[in-house]
Design a protein that fits this description.
With 363 residues, the chain is an alpha+beta fold. It is built from seven helices and 17 strands.
């Protein structure tokens, strides 16, 4: 739930940050180059270096502006982090990358010519001229932010599993890696495909933005492709008239079970599903036809998953990427990370071994 007063506080802090950052940038890129020219003129007239450097004295208003800028940014980030406020991290990363990139470009065009000329004019003196603080921030953060943005947007992104909708294949606390280019290079904000690659396949585990709230990421399995006719009848699923065969792997308890685990053959893709006996959360019978450019998504924990049975088909532009592997697992609390579950999510044998390794009483 969004904490409205805190959201308003963060927005107010970011407004103050924006104004102070603009004032800081005005000094760095408008006033400071003029000061460099004055410094060079004074040195050319023979004014002693120590005296000439006084022309670079910062205006009295700059120091409090810089402190306000830093304090409001740090406070806003801490509030967002600790209060778990809804923030579009992709948008934040893009804006941060653009801001540091603009600083880097303006530095090359506006500041560096005067700065380097001033350093050259001071070469014979013992005085050292430092880069402006805002320039140092831009030079330090821009390459890092740009690299993170490119990798996260177009190559791979880590995600954690927060819920049990994909049990038993994905456990709560699994850390997975999502391939961002498996289905093509996409606009990081809108999800529209820029460069198409491969279309999603039936059986893929996919991360996507929840259509009803795009700020939230979901992870489900692709069950229906565009044009598929899917029918569910009393626990039996069929696609385009072909019944999905299931092989029982485990049930709890052995007599009069309430839950069962099956190896389901999703028209050639084997994966494990969990069912609760007699529980048909979407009804005893339903059928759908998947429209073009859409997908029908279902969780492997079939009777505990909020998926396409409830909110409809997944539009292609909500796709984030393909979940490719588990690279770490960490239980809640003060537990050390474990790497015993590491492996490809496309490897059915590996996933079966992980399932067999799960304690039966924990299912």
């Amino acid at each position: 739930m969004i904490n409205t007063p805190m959201v308003h506080l963060v927005l107010a802090l970011m407004s103050v940050f924006s104004v102070s950052a603009l004032l800081w940038a005005f000094y760095t890129f408008a006033l400071l180059p003029q000061q460099y020219r004055i410094l060079q003129d004074q040195l050319a007239r023979g004014v002693p270096a120590a005296q000439a450097l006084s022309s670079l004295a910062e205006p009295g208003w700059l120091s409090p502006v810089v402190r306000i800028c830093q304090a409001t940014l740090i406070t806003s980030v801490l509030l967002v982090f600790f209060l778990h406020l809804d923030v579009d991290f992709t948008l934040f990363l893009i804006l941060a990358t653009l801001a540091s990139g603009v600083i880097w470009i303006l530095d090359r065009l506006r500041v560096q010519p005067g700065l380097q000329a001033s350093k050259l004019a001071l070469a014979k003196s013992d005085q050292i001229l430092q880069d402006p603080p805002l320039i140092e921030y831009g030079q330090s953060f821009f390459p890092i932010l740009l690299l993170v943005f490119l990798v996260r947007s177009f190559v791979a992104e880590p995600f954690t599993i927060p819920s049990g909708s994909m049990l038993p294949n994905l456990q709560i606390g699994d850390y997975i890696l999502v391939n961002k280019f498996a289905y093509g290079f996409r606009n990081p904000l809108t999800g529209r495909v820029w460069v198409p690659m491969h279309a999603p396949k039936r059986g893929d585990i996919m991360v996507f933005r929840f259509p009803q709230d795009p700020r939230v990421d979901f992870i489900k399995r692709v069950v229906g492709l565009p044009g598929d006719h899917i029918v569910f009848n009393e626990g039996q699923l069929s696609i385009n008239g072909k019944v999905l065969n299931k092989v029982l792997l485990r049930q709890n308890p052995q007599i009069d079970p309430w839950e069962q685990y099956f190896d389901e053959n999703l028209l050639g893709v084997h994966h494990i599903i969990r069912l609760e006996v007699g529980n048909f959360i979407a009804g005893h019978h339903w059928e759908v036809t998947v429209p073009a450019h859409h997908y029908f998504m279902m969780g492997d924990n079939r009777d505990n998953s909020r998926d396409s049975r409830f909110w409809g088909f997944l539009d292609d532009h909500f796709i984030v990427g393909k979940a490719s592997l588990i690279w770490m697992h960490k239980d809640e609390g003060w537990h050390l990370p474990s790497f015993s579950r590491d492996g490809s999510l496309d490897n059915a044998d590996h996933m079966l071994q992980l399932f067999k390794a799960l304690p039966q009483q924990d299912q």
